[in-house]
Amino acid sequence: MHERVTFPSTSGPRLAGVVDLPEGPVRGWAVLSHGFTLGKDSPAASRIAKQLARDGVGVLRFDNLGLGDSEGDWGDGSFSRKVEDTAQAVRFMEDAGRPVRLLVGHSFGGAAAIAAAHLTDGVRAVASIGAPYEPKHVEHNYDALLERIEAEGEAPFLAGGKALTLRRHFIHDVRTTDLRDRIRTLHRALLVMHSPTDNTVGVRNASLIFQTARHPRSFVALEGADHLLTGKGQAARAARIISAWADPYLT
């Protein structure tokens, strides 16, 4: 079961989300932040959320600005905006009487989840999956456009068959964001999950995140998984691990 919801972004346009409702007794609530341009309905986001719901953890997954069913222009967003809107999603859930104790982030969303935890009071645990140690890691997706964007201020960017606009402020934002201090001062339980054979975001990123973090921290290698968790059972397996690990922090 699920609910379709909308809530205002921190910049004004409304964001579209899905709350996957717990099956059976409610163990807790979570917010999931999707990868770079993947959206709430990407295989990783939807499968992780649905498996957590089967395990009694309700999850809000939402489309970032200008993606999927959300309003606005993706080009007006940035890593900082993604972080702020993730915290906004937590507040939306809390206003609905669903206190969020867990943040889950996949890829670029994993970095955002770590940063967003600092903007919340109730979140007690963060799980990152295939996250980069530095947000600027996403530059490999558009490195051929960098010179044009710096010169003209923006350039069209094709992602998942959809034409988006990549603007100069996004590039500058990811380049100046230092995630290291936010990892070091997280003061919440952190689960770092990564595939040793991830060819998109190398596993060294997970090592650096784990080494920078303070206890309580845990690391799980997702053997055999690809970065997008598209293989059969990969996303569900990751969700079951998160569900078991997060149990002490949900209530």
TrEMBL record:
The keyword Cell membrane does not apply. This is Putative redox protein. InterPro entries: AB_hydrolase_fold, FrsA_esterase, Hydrolase_4. PANTHER family: DIENELACTONE HYDROLASE DOMAIN-CONTAINING PROTEIN-RELATED, POLYKETIDE TRANSFERASE AF380. Belongs to the AB hydrolase superfamily. Residues 26-137 form the Serine aminopeptidase S33 domain. Keywords: Hydrolase. The lineage of its organism: Bacteria, Bacillati, Actinomycetota, Actinomycetes, Propionibacteriales. GO terms for molecular function: carboxylic ester hydrolase activity. The keyword Protein transport does not apply. Pfam families: Hydrolase_4.
